Amino acid sequence: MSDRLDDPRRDEALQTAARALARSARVAVFTGAGASKESGIPTFREPETGLWARYDPMRLATPEAYRDDPPFVWSWYEHRFGVAAAAQPNPGHYAIAELEHLLPQVVVITQNIDGLHQRAGSSHVIELHGTMHSFRCIDGRHRGFGWDDFADQDEKPPRCPACGDYLRPEVVWFGEGLPPDALDAAQRLSASCEVMLIVGTSGVVYPAAAIPMIAREAGATVIDVNPERDSLTRLCDVFLQGAGGEVLPELIAAVRAHLGA
Ligand code: BJW
Is the pLDDT assigned to residue 160 strictly greater than 80? Predict the structure, then answer.
């Protein structure tokens, strides 16, 4: 275990994590908002800077909130999607993508909706909380619309091109089920991975937060990369304290060294 990046035990923890990864045929990388923070996208629960420190999630991230005030919720998402669309993957995203070239099977299970893992080059990404790149009408009868499908509409929220109801983003709000195929795949991969690498999640939102526990109970080595200790830290075998964009490139360099790659 390492407490700080400059801790003398830090290199030992990094090497332990790298060795476990280098020996692993099946790796699951489980990410949250912290993985995108160095890309300029705010997290949710960090004091002061987190979105939920400034906004009430019950007024913005529930189906009831959207039904109560569609323009308000839509404008908040429009703003956030603008920030995310302008963002670039950071060194942590690229390091995770590079793992795919070093190890037999690497799957990213993300709670993020920003698509930055894919843009960094990760080819197998499971999106547990949906995506900011897809929209559907509010009752879900018509799905799969992209930004271009309503770019010519002035009304906000825009209307479903098929039925005329309001569109909404394909993201998972509180009280809504996660996409069943994504959740099934994530749970299956967690139960069979040899190493789970966790990056940038507080691990408080369920059912996603159970993913590391599934891996742990199935005997995987669990590595956590986070600047802060939190509820997941006690679950992990190796805690690498620090920002993903700093720790992950070092970790992947160490994996390379172990593999002689
Ligand atoms: C860094 C860093 C750096 C900083 N590098 N790291 C069991 C127990 C209790 C409650 C429940 C339960 N089961 C269900 C619930 C209810 C609820 C829930 O979990 N509530 C808890 C919060 C109390 N769950 C739900 O409602 C879920 N649905 C559900 O269960 O439905 C049941 C159902 C089944 C069938 C049919 C119908 C219903 C849905 C949850 C949806 C979550 N949605 C959001 C919004 C998505 C859209 C959007 O973006 O607007 O998802 S909320 C928000 O939280 C977002 C995130 O994906 C999610 C997780 O947050 P995350 O990623 O962990 O971010 P933070 O901010 O919490 O943490 C950031 C971390 O990064 C910190 O640790 C930092 O230290 C770290 N960090 N800088 C690395 N540079």
Answer: yes
Q: For residue 205, report the distance from its CA to the centre of ligand 1, in Å.
A: 3
Q: How confident is the model over 200-220, as pLDDT tens digits?
A: 999 999 999 999 999 999 999
Identify whether the C-beta of residue 199 lies closer than 8 Å to the C-beta of residue 34. yes
Task: Give the model's confidence band at 261: pLDDT under 50 very low, under 70 low, under 90 confident, else very high.
Answer: confident
- Cα(96)–Cα(106) distance, integer angstroms: 9
Cα 159 from Cα 3, distance rounded (Å): 50
Task: Provide CB contacts within 8 A for 184, sequence distance 6+.
Answer: none
Q: Which domains does the chain have, with CATH numbers?
A: 1-40+89-129+178-261 (3.40.50.1220), 42-86+131-171 (3.30.1600.10)
Q: Tell me how far CA of residue 177 lies from CA of 65, 81, 192, in angstroms.
A: 16, 22, 23
Strand order in the sheet with 26-31: 125-127, 105-110, 26-31, 195-199, 221-226, 238-241
3-class secondary-structure state, position 170: strand
Measuring from atom 73 of ligand 1, which residue has the nearest CA?
202
Strand partners, 30: 109, 198
Task: Name every residue whose Cβ is closer than 8 Å to that of residue 237 and which is 6 or more positions away in sequence.
Answer: 16, 20, 221, 222, 223
Q: Which of 129, 133, 142, 258 is catalytic?
A: 129
Active site residue 129: yes
Radius of gyration over every alpha carbon of the chain, rounded to an integer in angstroms: 19
- Cβ count within 10 A of residue 150: 17
**pLDDT tens-place string over residues 114-135:** 999 999 999 999 999 999 999 9
